[in-house]
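Per-residue structure
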Amino acid sequence: MTKAHSSRPLRKDASINRERLLDAARELFAEKGLGVTLNDIAHHAGVGVGTAYRRFANKEEVIDTLFEERLQAVEAVAREALDEPDPWTALAGYLRRTLKMQFGDRGLHQILDDPTLGDARINDVRVRIAPLIVELVRRAKDAGVVREDFEPTDVTFIQSAMAPIIDSTRDVAPAVYERYLTFFLDGIRSDDRRFTPLPAPALNSETTHSAMTRRRRNT
């Protein structure tokens, strides 16, 4: 990941231009992928190319900034979920809120799914977010509100499975992804039903990490 520009507070106009550039980058990454240039981002934002290069050294720094902002937001959601006293509300709420964030940010999906970028970013998720998910699932299992064979890594694959649904229905039926999330949530919740034995065990953390990076390389 590239080193960010100086962290000194920006003037108001500089801060506005920075946000315009980031908004433009999100839109262009979503529409055209990561092949766009910092010049393209500047033109789309309606600012001069020189202004763009004063705010960001290169496109990779824009990507790093967008990713870090989203990672901080997801981490905050997970920590807020851990403050929720009801374990089921905490786990389900984490999934609902993070998928809503995913729904609202097309550009982030491009960053995460690009085969040439992001192994370090995926590792950041593993280090900073995964332990919080582990704790959310542990609390839910201890409370008996999720099935005993549900594991923290299953959360990762639920989120991954939802991504193409969100992408393909965003413009035609914006709320329909919540229908399929409800199916997932009903499938993991524990009650008096008898569950069909699962045909395969959950993957461990290392194998999950390998699967996510391999999927991106093969796209």
The longest helix spans residues 59-83. The chain has eleven helices and no strands. The two ends are 22 Å apart (CA to CA).
